[in-house]
Amino acid sequence: MTTIGYLGPKGTFTKLAVDTAFNQEATRGFKTIPECIDAVDKNEIEIGVVPLENAIEGTVQLTVDYLVHQVRLPVAAELIVPIQQHLLVRSDFEGDLSDISEVHSHSHAIAQCHQYLHQHLPEANMVFTTSTGKAAELVSESRESIAAIGNKLAAREYGLRIFKENIHDYPNNHTRFLVLSKNEELVKINHPIQVTKTTLLITLPSDQAGALHQILSAFSWRKMNLSKIESRPTKTGLGNYFFLIDVDQPYDDVLFPGVKAELESLGCKVTILGTYPVYPLNI
């Protein structure tokens, strides 16, 4: 049976994405994103699912940097999951908001609920954890008047009560997750495909005026739609960057080789990170 790794423990949004996308596969939680990616690379698991980007908080930089600088793995699919954050307390908690001394959660989850926390829990200390699931686990084991921010799966897994639903600041919040696997045939997701995209990693030549404009022009005149472009440091010195570009179409034998050849003639280095389907999940 295929084993699917995810950012754990139980109750995280990554686990929620895995449970929704895959049917009755064996799963294994990991404490950190690098541990999950390493497990796929070392063939300890067949598939890994890690968060990539949140609509409110932006890119999960650890995921991007680790995949670019440490372990290169094929991207087999992308999952888009709606994010609903709730304030979770122990089932025997009988106090009110003013009694909560600490709120535990992942830094992204706390940031997504900033306005609610600012208005209703201004005196509570914010405590960052490695995941929303870990926060729920900590609250379930504590006898203090503390709370967690997490989803309904976390509440169910750890026997917590939802004290307040939907405390996130923006209603249209989603997170993108990457599905990583060396064997794409093992990735079987029975959901409608929104689009098939291709992701490229492009390193610019140093000190060349207009290089970024020339890169974008290579896609523009071919009428290739870019859904995202993001720069990240190459970690080789100040001012040195690479670009991640998402193109909303599958890799082909005409347009993409043409772009690659044109950019390489300008001194750019071009790497295709993957061409893969995107699945929006109804949760």
From TrEMBL:
Catalytic activity: prephenate + H(+) = 3-phenylpyruvate + CO2 + H2O
Coiled coil: none
Alphabetized UniProt keyword annotations: Amino-acid biosynthesis, Aromatic amino acid biosynthesis, Lyase, Phenylalanine biosynthesis
PROSITE patterns noted in UniProt: ACT, PREPHENATE_DEHYDR_2, PREPHENATE_DEHYDR_3
An annotated Gene Ontology molecular function: prephenate dehydratase activity
E.C. code: 4.2.1.51
CDD domains: ACT_CM-PDT (cd04905), PBP2_Sa-PDT_like (cd13633)
Domain (ACT): residue spans on this chain: 200-277
Span of domain Prephenate dehydratase: 3-182
Enzyme class, first EC level, given as a word: lyase
Protein biosynthesis found in the keyword field: no
Domain of life: Bacteria
Stored InterPro entries: ACT-like_dom_sf, ACT_dom, Chor_mutase/pphenate_deHydtase, Preph_deHydtase, Preph_deHydtase_CS
Pathway annotation from the record: Amino-acid biosynthesis; L-phenylalanine biosynthesis; phenylpyruvate from prephenate: step 1/1
UniProt-listed NCBIfam families: PRK11898.1 (NF008865)
PANTHER family: PREPHENATE DEHYDRATASE P PROTEIN, PREPHENATE DEHYDRATASE-RELATED
Protein's name according to its UniProt entry: Prephenate dehydratase
Protein source organism: Oceanobacillus longus
Lineage: Bacteria, Bacillati, Bacillota, Bacilli, Bacillales
